[in-house]
Every structure is written in C-alpha cells, then in structure tokens.
Predict the 3D structure of the following.
Amino acid sequence: MHAPRGDWRTDLRAARLRRESSPPERILWSRLRNAKLGGLKFRRQRSLGPYILDFFCAEALLCIEIDGHCHAHRRDHDARRDEYLRERGVHTLRIAASEVTKNPDGVLMHILRLARARIEEKEKSETEEGSPEKA
C-alpha cells in the first residue's frame, strides 16, 4: 500500500520537528537510524497525508509515536490520526517517553518483534493473494 506524503507545509513542519526533537526521540533515533534495528529502515518525523509521524517503517507499515505529557490533552487528535493511518494499513505503536528513557533496550525489542510480525503477516497475505485458488 502506498501511503500519501504530506503537502509542502506538512513537510516544512516535519523538518522543524526533526531539528527540535525531544530527548526520548533522540535516544530512539540514535538506535533506529541507518537500519541499526534488524536491518529495518525507519524515517524520522515523516509526513503522511496531513500528519507527521515520529518514526515510520514503510516495510512494516509501522508508525512509532513517542507520547509525552502533552499527549494526554491530544487524545481526540491522536484518535483521528490513528484511524487515518489504520485506514491506510499503517499500525501505530504508542510508547511513553518515560519508557524510552528508562528502558530503551526493551522498547527496541518490542518494536523489532512487532515490525517483524507485521512484515511476515504482509508477506503471507501477498503470497496468499498471488496463489491460484483451488477449485
């Protein structure tokens, strides 16, 4: 599934967010960048339609969101965004910023397991779609 990129305004906001990353985002990015996690390629502050995702792995159609204290006041926005992504086949994994800081290795293992499971599921689905139906 092809996920639509944002418009130029969204891309500009994403560039600003990359420059202004939170400490938990920087911790996670240092461990995700350059395919360090299981060879998976992640993008940081990636625009997708009208939204900006903290981290996105296209191969697994997986969005990683680091939720700080401000997300408690954004539940409606987050719910709309999660639904938008779900409609496009993208799964959102929300992780508390405090968890990234306290247990980065555990967070990374969770991300890796979920990404691999989604990739396997996608490959299985594609194989089943491509195989001839039995009469």
About this structure: Residues 104-130 form the longest helix (27 residues).
